[in-house]
Design goal:
heterotrimer, A alpha/beta (about 475), B alpha/beta (about 200), C alpha/beta (about 260), B: alpha/beta, Rossmann fold, six-stranded parallel sheet, about 25% strand, C: about 260 residues, alpha/beta, four-stranded parallel sheet
Chain lengths: ~475, ~200, ~260
């Protein structure tokens, strides 16, 4: 392969799409910055604290998982466990089948994307409707989300208006207000007719068994007001130790994701609805999903499990901005995806091992991360792992380093190469011809002056 | 499936964590570490709440008459009201209003407004708090275009941390910070997606 | 990247790591570094056996190869003196990257010992030697590119302190200053489309302020930006911060004469 896959994807990206992704992510970055830095005097201290809170929870999952399970059961929820995507999908299906349920409304959850739940349920004859506006549009378009919090960042209003028209949601109209109103009208009747609501969880407190769900649109609230059965798919890394941790994390999540103090709807759920309340689920099921997370926990990249899915690292990432989310070939795009997707890929790791290469290691992702994940360090560790796994995807267009290491450990050979460079006058020291060719095709190369400094230094010492 | 998967997952978790030479400790931090430093926690709660709620496009309001007037002026004449509130509010509403105290799912498109009790509010963020024991109907507070949450002055918490500390035993609690909103289409803010397009906090003393 | 714990220099003996890029292309940046350090009274040792910090292989994912180079570097720069590097990137490799790839190696302590006395040039001048006002004169409007490997370290603020103190010199802020230039080592040739797009965006922002030159603590970023600008028909002068500091001193002595 001439260049890395993500670069090739970026090269083929339509100008309009690139502009949409670039503008959308930059706007996300700007609002985050404004919120954090006008509201706090030391936002970095808060990020570090949030990172410690999550790291503590992750490194004590052996205590907290059984603890939260007991709390949930005490609160009246049923707890299920799913080791992989297949088990998670089947657990959902079984709950539905046991109740003769055929209609599901779902709020946005990354885990459900990960296990391809909608696809699975549809094959089983269950209607599974996305209710988040962006996810709904992705669903009727048979597309994929390209951003964690802005699923249709890659689409413009004209494309959306066209697919609304095609799907019988009114005549062509590309006014965002009209599009939203039509979705509101269509979806509310779907909620009311549905049997089961499926959500994820943003956090789950081991102390109380309280799960927290945040949305801006209110779709998860509608799911939990209209239906009688609630299924929550929860990745095992969503646990925090105590309720008080939530104040720190929620304050950072809204600001980091969308520049809001708090997301519009922040819902705390400990179980089925109370007896006096006419609306809401009479049953609550929690499905704990592993699906590769324990592999991540075992790896030296376990810090990535701190991630609270705010999307700030996507917004700031210069590579994401140029390549778009679909370039990452997985549910999680951007810097977090470049770490998480290969780790969650299991045996398919070598196929995804090029993702960690898609970074200049500029560190902007770490700087904005609300839980201070050292993403560049993790990308580097995965590059080493990719090399050891002999991944062809990872090594594409990357100059081999064996010769470089020989030169750079033998001063005489190094000096000889410096003077020989003058003859070739086009090969940068550590790089091999193909790489040099790419360089000079796109960028001017300064004149080779190998060894000149050493000569100057010697002269100076003499004088 | 579930029982064996449970053991399998927990075993894997233990296997992953046991080799760690030490585990990350629970960090020490004060309860108000994430409260905005410039936010005055001693300020009059309703005043502070009103200011912050306006910033998130919410509408603070005082007294039943103000609410009735606003609804009338904006043509929202049909609605739902918590039966335990209606006796108190009804005198402010004229005969032009049609108010039901029994929410009917089949009438979802007919309710222009919903009036329910708020369990509390958060001054720092301008959020109103609803929970299962004080909200008469989850749907009544969600599906109408206008939601008015009736608030008592003494139930306003100063900040998010205080509101979380006071969550208590209720099975379902929700912080509503401004109206329902989306920016999914080209990043343009549109209010009133699935929930209310207008979120009113109505103070009644 | 977080600021690393550095041992304060005692005395003015330093070792210079010129970096492979200066060794191959940018001899004047290295020479300027020497002149600046000498002006500050430093006694400079230049270990002849030096080659490279090991970063190309480290970033490229070949840690085994990189560790060989780091071990050579550790051996070459033995001693107690501060090692001054005219590159934020190479310095970060030595005080951060090397530690990462030696986490499970028996010779981690030796690598850590070198890390604790490695300084990027501007950081060394300001925070090592305590110099915050730079003498002389330099008539120019410059755009300062804070290279990404100095993100979160003391190097960026140190460079701005020095540049901002030079008489006649104006630092022009530009849009999206925190964004990367798109170089990224082997990234630049494995992801040429994205690398160029990032570089051009950076140039758009920088050139909008019409600077006389782009200044940075890293020749790698400058080589990329300068090369891209030249190829794109909008050439721009690029200079290492050491060259600015050295020339400012020259201008001072010229005035005195």
């Amino acid at each position: 392969m001439k260049y890395q896959q993500i670069d090739q994807f970026a090269a083929g990206l339509a100008r309009e799409k690139r502009a949409a992704v670039y503008d959308g992510s930059k706007a996300g970055y700007d609002s985050r910055y404004k919120a954090l830095f006008t509201h706090y005097t030391a936002p970095d201290e808060l990020r570090h604290l949030a990172g410690e809170i999550k790291q503590h929870a992750i490194e004590n999952l052996d205590t907290y998982l059984p603890q939260v399970e007991a709390k949930l059961q005490e609160n009246g929820a049923k707890v299920h466990w799913a080791a992989d995507a297949r088990e998670a999908c089947e657990a959902v299906l079984k709950i539905m089948r046991d109740r003769g349920a055929t209609k599901m409304v779902k709020a946005k959850t990354m885990v459900s994307e990960e296990i391809e739940l909608a696809h699975f349920l549809e094959k089983e004859g269950v209607e599974c409707l996305e209710t988040d506006l962006g996810e709904f549009i992705v669903q009727i378009d048979h597309d994929h989300p390209s951003h964690i919090v802005k699923p249709i960042i890659h689409k413009n209003r004209r494309e959306i208006a066209t697919s609304f028209e095609k799907n019988g949601l009114g005549e062509y109209n590309d006014d965002p207000g009209t599009i939203t109103r039509r979705a509101r009208q269509y979806l509310r009747h779907k909620y009311l007719a549905a049997d089961v609501a499926l959500t994820g969880a943003n956090f789950l407190s081991a102390e109380s068994g309280r799960m927290v769900l945040v949305t801006n649109e209110g779709n998860s609230r509608f799911c939990l007001a209209a239906t009688k059965v609630h299924i929550a798919l929860i990745g095992i890394e969503k646990i925090v130790a105590r309720d008080r941790d939530l104040a720190v994390l929620l304050n950072l999540l809204g600001r980091s994701g969308t520049g809001q103090q708090l997301t519009s709807y922040t819902e705390f759920i400990t179980g089925p609805k109370s007896a006096a309340q006419p609306d809401g689920p009479e049953e609550m099921h929690v499905i704990f999903v592993d699906n590769g997370r324990t592999d991540v926990l075992e790896s030296d990249c376990r810090e990535i499990l701190r991630c609270i899915r705010c999307g700030a690292c996507l917004n700031v990432c210069p590579v994401y901005r140029q390549a778009s989310g679909h370039a990452y070939r997985a549910v999680y795009p951007g810097p977090v995806g470049a770490v998480l997707s290969p780790l969650l890929a299991g045996k398919k790791f070598p196929e995804m091992a090029d993702l960690p290469k898609a970074s200049t290691l500029c560190g902007a992702c770490n700087e904005v991360c609300p839980v201070n994940i050292p993403i560049p360090d993790l990308l580097l560790r995965l590059r080493d792992k990719g090399k050891q796994a002999g991944s062809a995807a990872a090594s594409a267009a990357t100059p081999p380093m064996g010769g470089y290491a020989i030169l750079a450990t033998q001063p005489a050979a190094w000096k000889a190469a410096l003077s020989m460079g003058g003859i070739i006058n086009a090969v940068p020291t550590p790089l091999l011809p193909q790489a040099a060719k790419t360089w000079v095709e796109t960028r001017g190369l300064p004149p080779w002056r190998g060894g000149q400094f050493r000569k100057w230094m010697k002269q100076r010492k003499k004088s | 499936m579930s029982a064996s998967s449970r053991e399998a997952i927990l075993n894997r978790v233990r296997a992953a964590l046991t080799p760690l030479p030490r585990r990350a400790a629970y960090p020490e931090f004060g309860d108000n570490v994430a409260t905005m430093p410039a936010f005055d926690r001693e300020a009059d709660r309703w005043t502070a709440f009103s200011e912050r709620q306006k910033l998130v496009n919410g509408m603070p309001m005082v007294g039943a008459t103000a609410l009735a007037t606003w609804l009338r002026e904006n043509g929202h004449l049909r609605g739902y009201c918590d039966p335990t509130l209606w006796a108190e509010l009804a005198p402010a509403f004229g005969p032009e209003f049609s108010v039901s105290t029994d929410y009917d799912r089949a009438q979802v498109d007919e309710y222009a407004f919903g009036i329910t009790r708020a369990a509390g509010a958060i001054a720092e963020t301008g959020s109103i708090i609803l929970n299962d024991s004080t909200t008469s109907r989850r749907l009544g507070a969600l599906t109408p275009w206008v939601h008015a949450a009736v608030l008592r002055r003494e139930n306003i918490y100063s900040d998010v941390a205080a509101a979380i500390a006071a969550l208590g035993k209720d099975t379902n609690i929700i912080f509503c910070t401004g109206p329902s909103k989306t920016a999914d289409v080209e990043g343009i803010l549109i209010e009133g997606v699935h929930g209310p397009g207008v979120q009113i906090a109505l103070l009644i003393d | 990247m977080s600021p690393h714990e550095r041992h304060r220099p005692n005395g003015k003996r330093v070792q210079l790591m010129a970096t492979c890029l200066c060794d191959a292309f940018f001899d004047d940046a290295a020479a300027a570094t020497v002149e600046v350090l000498e002006y500050l009274g430093c006694e400079i040792a230049f270990p002849e056996a030096q080659t490279c910090c090991g970063q190309p292989a480290f970033n490229g994912g070949d840690w085994k190869a990189s560790r060989k180079v780091v071990r050579h570097t550790v051996k070459t720069f033995a001693g107690e003196e501060p090692v001054v590097v005219p590159s934020g990137s190479c310095a970060a490799m030595m005080f951060h990257g090397a530690l990462l790839e030696f986490e499970k190696e028996p010779d981690l302590p030796q690598v850590a010992q070198l890390a604790s006395r490695t300084w990027e040039l501007a950081d060394f001048i300001v925070n090592g030697l305590g110099v915050t006002k730079w003498p002389g004169r330099y008539e120019a409007t410059v755009a300062f590119h804070r290279s990404c490997h100095s993100r979160g370290t003391a190097s960026g603020p140190a460079a701005l302190t020095l540049l901002g103190s030079i008489e006649g010199l104006k630092v022009a802020p530009f849009g999206e200053g925190e964004q990367c230039c798109g170089f990224g080592g082997t990234f630049s040739v494995a992801f040429p489309t994205i690398s160029q797009a990032m570089g051009n965006l950076k140039l758009d922002h920088v050139l909008a302020t019409q600077p006389d030159e782009i200044v940075s603590a890293d020749m790698s970023c400058l080589m990329h930006m300068g090369g891209l600008a030249a190829k794109g028909g909008r050439p721009v002068k690029t200079r290492h911060i050491a060259q600015i500091l050295r020339d400012s001193l020259k201008n001072a002595s010229a005035t005195a004469r």
